[in-house]
Amino acid sequence: MDIIVLEPGTSDVNIRHIIKKLESKGLKTHVSQGTERTIIGVIGDTSKVTEEEEDAIRAMTGVENVVRILKPYKLASRDFKKENSEIKVRNITIGGKKIHVMAGPCAVENKTILFGIAEKVKNAGATILRGGAFKPRTSPYSFQGLGEEGLKYLADARDKFGLAIVTELMDTKEMDVIMKYTDIIQIGARNMQNFKLLLEVGSIDKPVLLKRGLSATIKEWLMSAEYIMSRGNQNVMLCERGIRTFETATRNTLDLSAVPLLKQMTHLPIVVDPSHGVGKRDLVAPMARAAIAAGADALMIEVHTNPEEALSDGEQSLKPDAFTRLMSELKPIAQAIGREI
Predict the structure, then answer these.
(1) Measuring CA to CA, which residue among 341, 100, 334, 74 is closest to residue 223?
(2) Per residue in 46-75, pLDDT tens?
(3) Strands (E) located in 34-148
(4) Which of 59, 69, 124, 144 has the fewest CB atoms within 10 Å, i.e. is most exposed?
(5) Prediction pTM value
């Protein structure tokens, strides 16, 4: 018993009665209003619910059907919600007809550089500014980010150019300061299975961009999303950013087959990060075009005005003019599949 389908027109009184009954058994609930049906998602160990108890719930006023979801991920499942989820971020919506592009530097270096990049990507059509203030690096000697100073620069750029901002949260200790500034919280690949962190962001009301782990299966990725959603935050986006395989010609192997597959498995919006997926500037545009054709709801692309001097990931960052060309190339592809950029 993982989904309770309600009859059309079921009263709020009856819905509350059903919820109270479920909560008395130690279960949690999430009500989802669809275009045709309202359903109650049941969260917790439903295996403890006996057949007799399930029949009793089935007989309650307003209950049309009780459905078991066999998949280990429940709230993220397409069985739980048939319609695509649309996530509102300031004045934009991710997951609808319009495909959004998140663009900016890997790391916020200083205010002048950030503003220069923000202006360029805004003029090219990006709607979200990306930039790391706390940077997880493979080497402890590499640039680790500006911290709160970098967050302030991002917020200033948002105010000046009208872009929403996304930045990475690495540690629960940084939660309060990042919540103060950002519009979207990014959980990086290294933290995809940091379950304590996932539960923490599940208890807040900001959208979460969950990147796929370096060697994570799609099931493991969806289970990480389930951790977040189980705490009440349903605004989760999944970001494919390449996985580690035996191939060394590119930084990672960008798994674009995951995009249409996920569209079958989950209602959550899908984002593709071709910059980290390939790690080579000249391959970013082809993979971005392919990602749109595959059905991605958004892209995340690294852009820098002077990649040669970038403090992080310069080799995979597009220059502003190349980014502008890419944005114009993406429009007819989006139109061909009934969407727009």
Answers:
(1) 74
(2) 777 888 888 888 999 999 988 888 788 989
(3) 38-43, 63-67, 87-89, 92-94, 100-104, 128-130
(4) 59
(5) 0.87
